[in-house]
Automatic annotation (TrEMBL):
<dbReference type="InterPro" id="IPR001646">
    <property type="entry name" value="5peptide_repeat"/>
</dbReference>
<protein>
    <submittedName>
        <fullName>Pentapeptide repeat-containing protein</fullName>
    </submittedName>
</protein>
<dbReference type="InterPro" id="IPR052949">
    <property type="entry name" value="PA_immunity-related"/>
</dbReference>
<dbReference type="Pfam" id="PF00805">
    <property type="entry name" value="Pentapeptide"/>
</dbReference>
């Protein structure tokens, strides 16, 4: 009987250790995948990463395809020159991370914190950003086309010298946002807050854009335009 108890106890301990080993393996899954991608084909696909926490980690020049990041924290991480196809960031913190020169297509950023993120010289296509914060983000010299932005904040962000076309904007805060030398022709800004936006003195950037009467009155006041 004693031998049986000892065997059972040993079996339980082995299984407990196996579970701990599995949990440790799962916890390091993203790091392992990145290291493998760097040494192999630079591709991570068809995976879900949840509750990952990485700081100042290099994930540059990697192709992410059909990947979900759920409740992950990537603080000051380097994603520069990476490509995102059918990728979802859901309830993530990607603040102060570097997404410069990245390519996005058919992806989603939802309920996430991207404050201070760098998206310079990026191409963002057919992508949806929802209920997220991009304050102080830098999208300068980027291309943004066929995208949907819904209930997001871009306070004091920059889209300077960018190309923005065919995007749908709903309840977007662009307070203090820099659109210098970025034509907004055909863009409906009427449901956005655009107080303090940075544009040329001749309002070149707003030619052909749609704004509300209240926004027009504010622009007249700010730019000291005389109506005759």
């Amino acid at each position: 009987m004693k031998v049986g108890i000892e065997l059972a106890a040993g079996y339980i301990m082995e299984n407990k250790q196996a579970v701990l080993d599995f949990q440790e393996e799962q916890r390091n899954t993203l790091k392992d995948c990145v290291e493998k991608a760097i040494s192999d084909e630079n591709t991570i696909e068809n995976l879900v990463f949840e509750n990952e926490e990485l700081s100042e980690f290099d994930m540059s020049s990697i192709d992410f395809e059909k990947v979900q990041f759920i409740k992950c924290t990537f603080h000051k991480c380097n994603f520069s020159r990476s490509r995102f196809y059918y990728v979802d960031f859901i309830n993530c913190n990607i603040s102060l991370s570097d997404f410069s020169k990245t390519f996005w297509k058919k992806s989603n950023i939802t309920e996430s914190n991207a404050v201070g993120g760098k998206f310079l010289e990026s191409s963002i296509k057919e992508t949806k950003m929802t209920d997220s914060m991009f304050d102080y983000g830098n999208f300068s010299n980027s291309i943004v086309t066929d995208c949907v932005l819904d209930n997001c904040k871009f306070i004091e962000s920059s889209f300077a010298e960018s190309k923005i076309k065919k995007i749908k904007l709903k309840k977007i805060t662009f307070s203090g946002t820099d659109f210098f030398k970025t034509p907004l022709r055909g863009i409906d800004l009427s449901d956005c807050l655009i107080d303090g936006i940075k544009i040329s003195a001749d309002l070149f950037e707003l030619k052909g854009a749609k704004i509300s009467s209240d926004q027009a009155v504010e622009l007249v006041r700010v730019f000291d335009i005389e109506i005759v």
